[in-house]
Amino acid sequence: MNTRLGSPDERASPPAAAAGLPPPAERGATVIPDRVVARIAARAARTAQSRRAALPSDRGGPTAPHASAAVRTGSVRLHLTMDLPYPSDIPRVCERIQRDVAERVAQLTGLRVGEVTLTVRRLVTAAGANRGRVR
Predict the structure, then answer these.
(1) What are the φ/ψ torsions at residue 85 (nearest 5 degrees)?
(2) What is the mean pLDDT of each run of 10 residues along the chain (135 residues)?
(3) 112-124: strand order across its sheet
(4) Number of Cβ atoms within 10 Å of the Cβ of 13
(5) Whole-Å CA distances, 33 to 38, 85, 115
(6) Does residue 87 have a cis bond before it (omega within 30 degrees)?
(7) φ/ψ (deg, to 5) at 60
């Protein structure tokens, strides 16, 4: 099969110009609802929690991270609630999770992440999760 590229002038023009569409800046805006950004943030938090805090991701369970988002004019404020392991360096783990979530949300949505607030719901011991009550 032979394919032939067009002339250099044809290759340089974007397909939108050939279709008669206005430039991208004049076409409108993509609006991402708060709940969609929150779901993206919750997924990113699950990934960061398992990577940074060494807690297995509990998809949809009672210990799964929860996220809420407030999108305003191209930026977003996130609030995360999650469990963390005990013992651990909690301030350092929280900072890394916040950074990971902010980067991932910005990458996937194109929004500027202005703030990520993280609330630690509870501290979980690895041994305590597998054992019953100690007598």
Answers:
(1) -75, 150
(2) 45 56 80 94 93 68 86 93 90 95 95 95 72 53
(3) 66-72, 75-85, 112-124
(4) 10
(5) 9, 32, 17
(6) yes
(7) 80, -5
